[in-house]
Design a protein that fits this description.
This protein has 5 helices and 5 strands. With 151 residues, it is an alpha/beta fold. It has one domain: Response regulator (Rossmann fold), CATH 3.40.50. Helix 3 links the parallel strand 3 and strand 4. The longest helix has 18 residues.
């Protein structure tokens, strides 16, 4: 990936308020990162597999990182995570669970399914901004990701 190519985070979140909250925090705290949003697990998988409404040339590139809510309609985040991590190409994309649940069974299940990190959604803007900044700093400045060309 060239140093001029913008990084992309794909947010899978069904709640419009949580979408806005995450998008605003990411845009305010990590201005070089582009955020794309899908509303449920089925839409997430269509986006990643370039199916349905995402099969044309206008579809943004595969994301560098996925932020995944666990509780979504049609296909929940657990099933989407399972499908992503079983796919030979998609499994290389880091998936960060970003959800309201702080329950140990949800955390353990998410790691068992292959999540790269588990974050409980912050309740205020300052904390959300700090979380988005930490995600951006770690995944785009510290960690080394595969290039989109190698997927």
């Amino acid at each position: 990936m060239s140093s001029h190519e913008q990084r992309v985070i794909l947010l899978a979140e069904d709640d419009p308020d949580d979408q806005m909250f995450a998008r605003k925090a990411l845009n305010d705290c990590q201005t070089t990162i582009r955020i794309e949003v899908v509303h449920d697990g089925e839409q997430l998988m269509q986006y990643l597999r370039r199916e349905g409404p995402y099969s044309d040339d206008d579809t943004p590139p595969l994301p560098d990182v996925i932020l995944l809510d666990l509780n979504m309609p049609r296909m929940n985040g657990r099933e989407a995570l399972h499908q992503i991590k079983r796919d030979a190409i998609l499994k290389r994309i880091p998936v960060i669970v970003l959800t309201t649940s702080n329950a140990s069974p949800d955390i353990l299940d998410s790691y068992d399914r292959g999540t790269n990190a588990y974050i409980v959604k912050p309740l205020n803007y300052k904390a959300m901004c700090a979380a988005m900044d930490a995600i951006g700093q770690f995944w785009f400045n510290t960690a080394r990701l595969t290039s989109r060309d190698s997927r």
